[in-house]
Amino acid sequence: MTLEFIDTKVCAVLSAMLIVGIWEPNGSGYEMEFYDDGTMSSKHETGKYETIDNHLRILDMGFMGHVLSYDYEINGDTLILINDSGIRREYTKKK
User: Fold this and answer.
1) pTM for the whole thing?
2) Which of 30, 27, 22 has the alpha carbon at shortest distance from 77?
3) Residue 76 has what DSSP assignment?
């Protein structure tokens, strides 16, 4: 195993840890919960997610095979998801 591979895995794990928890929308939308095992739930759906650097991919969530892809930022208790069109959605971490 190379050091680069290990660094990539460590970054992926740390990145995923930051997003774990329940996030409530600011404005319209619905809350999402990210679990530390790479699964998530939202409304009445469940799925899988992965993070790579500051990129979030939501997989297998009942979107007929589509993968949702976002850049994301975490600033304190605020999660900002930015889609490919540049639309930003903010969520606050539930305490």
Assistant:
1) 0.76
2) 22
3) T
